[in-house]
Amino acid sequence: EGGVERVVQELLLVAERYYASAARGLGFIPVGPRIAIAVAASVYREIGRRLLARGAAALRGRTVVSGGRKAWVALGAVLGLLGRDLLGAHGRPHAAELHHHLAGLPGANVPRLAGRVG
């Protein structure tokens, strides 16, 4: 089980980078879907954080986030969006290297990565 936990931990740490990068790009999404996406991302991110906190032991059963905690996380997501909207902090540079697989697709903001294979 140690090998699985190690892989799950690595994936959750990569997911954290994607969540942070995605949060910086939310301003490019229309307001209605932006709220739903921010709330969903925050709740799923919380599940990942809970799983990480319990040693990334995904095979020991479901990782559950209570309804109250989900509501709190959702409220935080909405307040975070309001704060970013008021401060104009949307659209800050994201971690483009996370999106190298999107290179060449319409609308993708991906720099050419020298020597990158894959």
Keywords:
single chain; 118 residues; mainly alpha; 3 helices
Secondary structure layout:
Elements (H helix, E strand, L loop, with lengths): L1 H24 L5 H23 L13 H21 L31
Annotation, overall tally of beta strands: 0
Share of helix, binned: 55-70%
Question: What is the number of helical segments per DSSP (H or I, 4+ residues)?
Answer: 3
**Structural class by secondary-structure content:** mainly alpha
Order of helices and strands: HHH
Distance between the first and last residues' Cα: 29 Å
Number of domains: 1
Low-confidence stretches: 113-118
Strand fraction = under 5%
Mean pLDDT, all residues: 84
CA-based shape: flat
Main sheet specs? none
Q: What radius of gyration results from the CA coordinates?
A: 16 Å
Structure description:
- The protein has 118 residues and is an all-alpha fold.
- It has one domain (2-93).
- The protein is 58% helix and 0% strand.
- It has helices spanning 2-25, 31-53, 67-87.
- Helix 1 (2-25) runs antiparallel to helix 2 (31-53) and helix 2 crosses helix 3 (67-87).
- The longest helix has 24 residues, at 2-25.
- The two termini are 29 Å apart.
Could you give a quick summary of the protein structure above?
With 118 residues, the protein is mainly alpha-helical.
